[in-house]
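I'd like us to work through together how a protein chain folds, taking it slowly. To get us started, please write out a protein record for me. Go ahead whenever you are ready, and we will take it from there:
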Amino acid sequence: MYGFKAAGRWRDARGANLLDGAAPFYGVYPCADGRFVAVGALEPQFYEALLSGLGLEAAALPDRWNPKNWPALRAILEAEFAKAPARRMGGAVRQDRRLRDAGPVDGRGAGASAQRVPQNLRPGAPARSPRQRQGFRATPRDRGPPATAGAESEAILREYGFSDERIAGLRRAGAL
């Protein structure tokens, strides 16, 4: 932020800057169902995906990098988001054919799921990057589905030096 300020691109005013909600492509919008959607489309590919998802053409919109255009662009995006309900994570894959049917998108080919529990937004999504090549250390392997709350408590306590007797006492007390 200090770099932005030194370059004259940051103002000491709330909601007046690129990353504090002033930029229409980096903010929160109400949807038709009263829920909200957060938008963080700074990079060109994400901005293009945002516009595509809303059915908008970049050529028909004002220059997004000119802060003078932000109020007009925000009004356009607000109107589009207000037309539809917000999607929930669980329903997004079921509701959106592109998410449901899409396979690996970047050529790495590894679907990221563990024991049939999705680890990314959609089955078949690319696994973590970078992988072991060109000097990168190995990427940790998926260890299975996410643990249930408390499933690793005893192992963590042992790692921090708790004795078996003390852990048993915590279990008897209902703390575990």
Remarks:
- DSSP finds seven helices and four strands in the chain.
